[in-house]
Amino acid sequence: MKIFITGINGFVGSYLVEYLIKSYPKSKIYGLIRNRADQHNLLQIKSKLKLIEADLLDTKKIDQTIKSVKPDWVFHLAAQMSSRFMKEADEQMLDINIIGALNLLKAVKNNAPKAKFLFISSAAVYGNPPGHCFPLKESCPAAPIDIYGSSKVCAEILCQQYCKIFGLPVLIARTFNILAPTRAQNYLEKNFIPQIKSIKFCKAPPIINTGDLTSERDFLDIRDIIRAYVALIQRGRPGEIYNVCSGTARRMDQLSGLLIKYSGLKGKVKLVRDRRYVRAIDIKKSVGSNVKLKRHTGWSPKIKLERTLSDMLKHQGLLCNKTSK
């Protein structure tokens, strides 16, 4: 079996390829990366992959690449994320996230039309729906509030059109908030945990600057997410959209409280709201239903939030207390 992954050098892509190497050791795995892209996440497994340098906007190169590889599975992870403070449209983001997806769909249709194609979308497509919609089902209307969510909606529409018109077996995974022991790029990993580290190891003042901790999110461990992606490409139904989520809403102050507790700083630090960490445009609540994903694939989450958080701190050398596994 031949597996083709775009965005393979990102933190999600690196977790995915590690899982695939262990689960499908006889498969050939190809990864698409941009020219001069950072390959740090792939250093330990690079010898087991075939990396191809190409830009998704280079129509000819993408077509040639798919024609040469002829993959059985395609995981399309590559995308440009939005800045926390972005208000206006970013043309480069639209090009990469929409035209890049279109170029890949065309290439797969023309050269590997039987390949299972999993497009990685985002819960950002839902925007800020009314309270009666929660937990969000895949049938909930898309109403993104930022350009990133809008770009994902456009790419989803293209995926569904290629499935309906050309019979390309495309599936869509709307991924909610991701937590990971290592390599993550979320708010907790980039801002919150470094502040804990500075307090514990660098004798920084016992103050942690935060954004809006009243927002609610649906967090899922990256290891469960990767299992969901593979379950979808194996057993998911072409043309369908699937929420990849835990099904449980967690307030940000709950997560921050657990991180403080597990790091041994409970009662020793003060949280201060800092407008530098507040998004220009933000989703107040995001929690999805994973009933469809479970019903169609047999998947279910295995890793508790408490374990994920403790693993994050353990990786940073910050874990003090034993946590639930």
What do you see in this structure?
The protein has a domain at 2-178 and 219-244: NAD(P)-binding Rossmann-like Domain (Rossmann fold). Strands 3-2-1-4-5-6-11 form a seven-stranded parallel sheet, sandwiched between helices. The protein has a two-stranded parallel sheet with strand order 7-10. It has helices at 11-23, 59-69, 91-111, 147-166, 187-201, 222-235, 252-262, 291-297, 305-315, and strands at 2-6, 28-33, 50-53, 73-76, 116-122, 170-175, 177-179, 207-210, 216-217, 219-221, 241-244, 250-251, 270-273. The model has no long low-confidence stretch (mean pLDDT 94). The chain has 325 residues and is α/β, with parallel strands linked by helices. Strand 4, helix 3 (91-111) and strand 5 form a beta-alpha-beta unit. It is globular, with a radius of gyration of 20 Å.
Brief summary of the model shown:
This protein is α/β, with parallel strands linked by helices and 325 residues long. It is built from 9 helices and 13 strands.
